[in-house]
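Help!! Second protein's tokens look totally different from the first
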Amino acid sequence: MALFKKSGPVDESLPKDDRGSGSFDDYVGVLVPKNKNVTIRLANSNPHQDELAALAAEDPETLTTATPARSMDDERVDAPIEVRLFSGRRVSGVVGTVPRGLESIYDEAVRRLDGRGAKPRIPVEVVQTKRGYRLDLLIGQTK
């Protein structure tokens, strides 16, 4: 069950350290990031630690999302967005999910890039924490 707090949604079915994070307070207008430093940390990354460790060894400049915006069918059933990465050479397996409730921000960022004629890929950063690897979507860079 996803609860929603000012700091972002909380999916209580996931461990506390693997729920992801983000906040609608970081956006203006039609989900446009306020600045270039806005990020969303993916949820459910614990099962994908091997994939994230391999990606952490890649050139960080080549890492972007390889997951398109949700289709209308996916939106109707409120399907989670499983994120895969493109590393310049290959597409990874799933590395996590967009935190529940923040899917519209992800979809809008991908559509904004596509609408400009840019590749619909959000830059990312693999972050090593005390509890393992996490993935931050650099949403602010899609502004």
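Here's the second one for comparison:
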Amino acid sequence: MDVQFGNEQRGIQSATALKAVLTEAAEHQALVFLVGDGGTLTVGVGHPTHAVLLFYNPKAGGPPLHGVGDSTADSAAELQPPLTFDGRLFFDRCALPARQAHRAAQFFFESGGGLLDSIVWEPEPTVMTSLTTEPGSLA
């Protein structure tokens, strides 16, 4: 399985190597991409208490998914510090305990792309845009 974060890409062969990469990336509050045959799991690491999980498998044809930590959390960031990875702010509802996210990454690695059942996964919201052209307008 390949791991990408920042400008680095590495192949990992063991759970110990995965743990080392997650620990190293956490020094920078970063997104780590685990890329395998079963899709890509993105783990936001480096927040003092929480992490985020995103999953995408274009081969399966389903939508991208994100893990839900607290479905009742307000959309405004209330965690301190905010849930930010690689400069991207995430909603508090996506905040999972860091240990749970690390277990999910471990499971993804060991199972060759499986998602941990103890996490609630929901589709990423889609942004819909439409272009309206009226007679006489340039489009």
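Reply: Different proteins will give different token patterns, so don't panic. The first strand starts at residue 2 and ends at 5.
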